[in-house]
Structures are given as C-alpha cells and as structure tokens.
Amino acid sequence: MNQRTQSPRRRAAALLAGLAAVGAQALSGCGLLTDPTVTVNVGYQSKTINTVNAGTLLRDSGEFEKALERLGEQTGQRYRVVWQDFASGAPLTAQMMATHVDIGSMGDYPLLTNGSKTRKYADAETEMIATTGYSLRGSLNQVVVPQTSSARTLADLTGQRVSTSLGSAGDGMFSTALQRNDIDKAVVNIVNQDPAVGAAAIEGGQVDALAQFVPWPQLVVFREQGRLLYDGGDNEVPTFHGVVVRKHFADGHPEVMTAFMEAVQSTTEAIVADPLRAAQRVSALTGIEPEVVYLYNGPNGLVSFDMTIKRQFSAAFDQVKAFLVKRGSVTADFDVADFIDDSYLRTLFGPDYERRLDDVANPAKLSGTDDLCRLPVADPAQASEVWPAGADTTHPAATPTCLLRRVAATEEVRAAYVPDTLTGIRLFADHAVWLADPGAPPTQRYKPFATDAGADAYRATHPQATPVGYDAAVSQSRSSR
For a tag site, which of 150, 382, 383, 419 has the least CB within 10 Å? Predict the structure, then answer.
C-alpha cells in the first residue's frame, strides 16, 4: 500500500479555503457578509463496535462538538454537527454520493465501494483518512449456525441458506472462505439481509447460517441462539474499519477536519484507558449486551483501536478490490493508493507517526497477577479474564486453566474470556470447545477452541486430548494442580 502525504498544492489550497472562511467571518462582523453556520454531517453505524471511536462514543462524549466550540471561539465561526446512524456501509455511501454526509465510518469492503462510486462526482469524491479498529488476523467477521445444527465445517453448508449482507465485509469474508475451501458458492443459497434481520432469522430457523461482521456473530453466540462455525481469521486476511471524508468538504473546512481527528484520537484513547467502562457505555447506548461489547473492545480483545492505516492492510485492499471488481461494485481502474490519504494522521501524530504505524500490538493489554495460580498475566496467547456478576471490575487469569479455577471459586460469573489455543482470538469461555490434554503442564491442562474444526486440528497432533464440557472442565480444574 502506498501511503502518501497530501500534495503541497492541495494542502495550500485547503489552507487558503480555511483562511477565506475566517476572513469571511471577519467581514461579516463588520456587517458586510452573512455568517452562515457550517454544518458537519457525520454518518456512523452505532452497532458496529469497531467504529465507536468515530461514531457511537464520539457522539456521546461530545468531544467533536467541544473541539468545534473552541475553534469557534477563536474564529467567530459557528458550527453544527448532525449525526446520522446507518445499519451498514451501503446506505451511508448512498448519502455521501448525494452529499448529505460529509464524514463517515464503515468496513473495508464498503470503504472501497464508497471510494469507487463517489469518485464519479466532483463534490462527492471521498478519501480514506484513518482507521477506527482492526484485526490483523481478520477475526471480526465470522459464520455462525444454530446450536442444533449438525454442521462442523463450511462444506456442511452445501444446499443450506446463509444470511449475509451483499457487498459487506461479512459477505466478502464468506465468499473468500468458500473459495479457500474449494466450495462452489453456487451450492450455497445466499439470503441478502441486514445483520439484525439475519440474526433474527437464525433464531427463528429461517436460515441455516449467518455470515456477518462485528458484533453480530458473537451476539448470536452470547444469546445462545447459535455457535461459531468459521472464524474469518482463517482466511488470513486483515479486516478493518475506517473513516472516509468528502474531499470537497475537507478542502473547504480543514479546521473542521483537524477538530474531528483530535476528537477521534481523544475518544480512542479513552476506550483503551478504560475498556470496561467504554463497553458498558456502548451497551447503554445501543442495547448490545456489555459482555459482547467487552469481548471485542476489552484488553486483548478482537478489535485493536488504532487510527493508523497499517502497512499490513495492503494485501487486504488488493483482495477486497478483486472481489468487488468481480461483483461490479468497484471499477478495475480504481486506484486504492490514491484513495488513501494519511496526511491528516501525520499531522495529528507528528514525529511519532511512523512508530505508531509500525506498532501492531493491541494497545489494550490484559496484565496483572493471577493470585490463584500465582503467575504473572503476561502471555496474550494464554491470558484470560473473569467478570464476576455484580462487579464493575474483572480478574485476570494467567491461562485458560487458571481461569477455570477462578470461575470455580466465583459465586456467580457474568462473563469469562479465554484465547483460542491455536489462534489466540478472544472467546466466551462457556461457548468454547474444550479439550483436556493430560500431557500439558497443570496450569495449561484445559484447551479452549473457537470451533469444532479447531479442536479436531489439535487432536490430530495431540491424540491424548479428549473432549470435555465447560461445566465439567470448571469442576475438574479444582484438582488440576
């Protein structure tokens, strides 16, 4: 991916436009011109957890409005922010094409569709200026099936009805997964539905599987309406969400863009500093259970909240474009490198930008000391976490086995989180597939997996490992010392 800085000519033009706006205000103060309020239309997806720093929580915190108010005190200009909530990226893009939205956030597949479709219009053309959240593994998109389903692999969906949102990240993940597993997409009956409709269809038995983006798959799992069949991370392609802005608006209001980027940075830092509080607030605003939100945005969570546009996204952009070109959503001559403008990020972070760009560790880390196992909580591939019922704090565990001991010693558990043994992705402990491996060290005796296929892969090289139910594992963990 070729990241670029904004051309001097374009940046100068933007600066002149901003100065002209300030000058116009000065003249209006003398009664020579009218002083119109600058309206900023921001589109977001409230229930898409890895965009909350540019949407749900940003709106709730009022950080953007506060920044614009401070700006107005300096320039005399008045600003107004209008927030528009969308279910997915497609309708948001339509509103940007109509110039009814100036700044928007959406997933990787809709991002490229947005850039390709808007470039036909001078006043609607967009550029990607930041990331909101990402998973280098690609585990933000997943496939779930009803709990009663007999399916163990994607091949078992042959002839079945699979709900997805065409053109979405979930759709792209599922299509890629079928291709990687040599499954003809024609043998699967695709049902085009909004995420919420698809989740309801799983519960009602109208479809046999749901292929969707964050948070819908794990929401279905948590509500015990389904189980995980396939993790999008097995496609080995990063997935991410980001921010796009209409160039016409950004060039005319550079001061607004500076305020917006600073507000997103502040909101991102607040999420990383106190993820549990952030999860509870997102839940209160959206109705998504806090336990589900925390699975994604908690320490070592499925989402890394980081604004920089990682170099590792390059392969994902290439694959996304190829998929969307085949679908007719993106033109073959669409230049992805030209669509990406990291100049706002470089201005925001200054000399620290390159370091941030190269850092791909989740900024929210699970750490501490496990007082039951008497071990430090340091290895993200093992670190686990228990959220007791009625508590506003959580307890770390050094390993999944140590977590089971903690659960056994806790009167009532609100949620428990463990990393998948093979991939490290964060799981609900009570919905994981567990194996007991007598050959492993005592504090690593019990192994959690995201899917049956993952557990089968482990047993292929560890034949001594045997399946064990979660409740049995909790009970047995008391003596695994």
Answer: 150
CATH code at position 221: 3.40.190.10
The model's pTM:
0.89
1 located within any domain: no
pLDDT for the residue 478: 76
Supply the range of the domain harboring residue 91.
Answer: 8-133+240-358
pLDDT of residue 87: 86
Q: Is 188 helix (H, G, I), strand (E, B) or coil?
A: coil
The answer to whether residue 353 sits within a structural domain is: yes
CA distances from 15 to 41, 82, 448 (A): 21, 24, 54
User: Hunting for tokens 């078992």 — which residue is that?
Assistant: 156
Structure tokens given for 431: 């919905």
Give the containing element (helix H, strand E) for 443: none
* Residue 35 pLDDT: 54
Contacts of 109 (CB under 8 A, 6+ apart): 89, 167, 168, 169, 171, 172, 320, 323, 324
Residues 376 and 304 in one domain: no
H or E segment at 82?
strand 79-85
| Helix count and strand count (H, E) for the chain | 19, 20
Judge contact between 267 and 58, C-beta under 8 A: yes
Last residue of a domain, which of 166, 200, 235? 235
In this structure, is residue 363 part of a structural domain?
Answer: no
The DSSP string of 210-260 is EEEETTHHHHHHHTTS-EEEEEGGGG---EEEEEEEEHHHHHH-HHHHHHH
Alpha-carbon span 479 to 477, nearest angstrom: 5
Tell which residue, 438, 429, 433, has the closest CA to residue 383: 429
What percent of the residues of the chain are helix, what percent strand, and what percent coil, each to the nearest 5? 45, 20, 35
User: Is 3 contained in some domain?
Assistant: no
Q: Where are the alpha helices (DSSP H) in 382-469?
A: 400-408, 452-461
What stretch of H or E contains 47? none
Burial classification of residue 166, based on how many CB atoms lie within 10 Å of its CB (0-12 exposed, 13-18 middle, 19 or more buried): middle
Do 307 and 198 fall into the same domain?
A: no
Contact 9, 225 (CB under 8 A): no
Of the three residues 203, 235, 267, the one that is the final residue of a domain is 235
Do 259 and 119 belong together in one domain?
A: yes
Task: Tell me how many domains the chain contains.
Answer: 3
The predicted structure's pLDDT at residue 7: 47
Per-run averaged pLDDT (10 residues), the chain, 481 residues: 45 45 43 70 95 98 96 94 93 96 95 96 97 95 95 96 91 93 95 94 95 94 95 93 98 97 98 97 96 96 97 92 92 96 97 97 95 95 97 96 97 97 97 97 96 96 97 86 58
